[in-house]
């Protein structure tokens, strides 16, 4: 028999009262798991994420092993980008590498469109199976247009995103076309995941924090508004996340998004002090998981004591789990968060 559906995460996303603080971890499906590493030795990343059986197994594993309150689909932000005519592969220890990065305005105009039925049937099949099998909500996701553009223009991970910003400043019309194409792709991709059974969706805009607030407002915010306006009509909670994006949160607070994901640099207390009233998710430094348990517990308490002040808070790390982290530490942390935040029953 299936377990009853645990909707604590969805309640928190909707700012409803929850019996305890829900928890899940960015990159909970991945490299810290021996089962993942074993499969990865035999398959490429996309062979794994585009095989429904393997995708379902990797997505379910952290739910079963760690006891988290949400699952996140095992895919990558580059999953849909491949189908626009961008030749991308994922290399262990590096991440996405593109052999034909965008170099000219013509390259932008040449980009294709995502057709979910033709391009990602196996990803959607995995979402449908997960929706049937899981007893916790499934988070679908996509990359934010700025972050995707950065990989597509730089060709790989970048520290300062010079080429990306160069195109943005020197060719604002071409940049606008690129943002519109990526917004269309993101919406098509996320809507397809929602229709297949994703209960919430997250936009990972990991590198958008490299922009000043003025440039975010000018070159990216209009696109994000279109994306979140459209997603709002689908009726599922939405999450927006970036790294080093503390200076952009006042802008994010104006967007029609349900939840703001924080990295570890910005304290929850300081975010609330700025008047940001969205549901918050985060934000323990993922490196802490390599420290002793006493320190992990102390820092988890510090984060929880700030987050618990309001309804509408989800515990997470401030970025993804590192491959060196032990499964048992994550298990213990999940249990601790649940126990520490459980409201005792009043008789
Ligand atoms: O558990 C999960 O989080 C679900 C699966 C998931 C998600 C949400 C993966 C699998 N990738 C992502 C999002 C993602 N991918 C982001 C946004 C979140 C973040 O900032 O980490 C980004 C920037 C990427 C791009 C990417 N793909 C990187 C980062 C590289 C860089 O520039 O720093 C890497 C290392 C990948 C590969 C990847 N994606 C996912 C996994 C498990 C891996 C490792 C793959 C391997 O085995 O080689």
Tell me what the structure shows.
Keywords: Cytoplasm, Decarboxylase, Lyase, Porphyrin biosynthesis. This protein is α/β, with parallel strands linked by helices and 347 residues long. The chain has one domain: TIM Barrel, CATH 3.20.20. The chain has 15 helices and 9 strands. The strands form 2 sheets. Strands 1-4-5-6-7-8-9 form a 7-stranded parallel beta sheet. Strands 2-3 form a two-stranded antiparallel ribbon. Strand 5, helix 11 and strand 6 form a beta-alpha-beta unit. The longest helix is centred in the middle third of the chain and has 25 residues. It is globular. The structure holds coproporphyrinogen I. The site of coproporphyrinogen I has 21 residues, from strand 3.
Give the tally of structural domains. 1
- Mind telling me which CATH architecture this is? Alpha-Beta Barrel
Low-pLDDT residue intervals, each spanning 5 or more residues:
none
Query: How much helical structure, as a percent, in the residues?
Result: 40-55%
The fold-level CATH name is: TIM Barrel
Number of strands: 9
- Please report the number of helical segments: 15
Question: What string gives the helices and strands in order?
Answer: HHHHEEEHHHEHHHEHEHEHEHEH
- Report the top-level CATH class: Alpha Beta
Strand content: 5-15%
Round the Cα radius of gyration to an integer and report it: 19 Å
- Which structural class is indicated by helix and strand composition? alpha/beta
Ends distance: 31 Å
Q: Could you tell me the mean pLDDT?
A: 96
- Give the neighbour order of strands across the main sheet: 1-4-5-6-7-8-9
Largest sheet: 7 strands, parallel
Question: What is the molecular shape?
Answer: globular
Ligand inventory reads: coproporphyrinogen I
Pfam families: URO-D
Enzyme class: lyase
Protein name: Uroporphyrinogen decarboxylase
Domain Uroporphyrinogen decarboxylase (URO-D): 22-31, 139-155
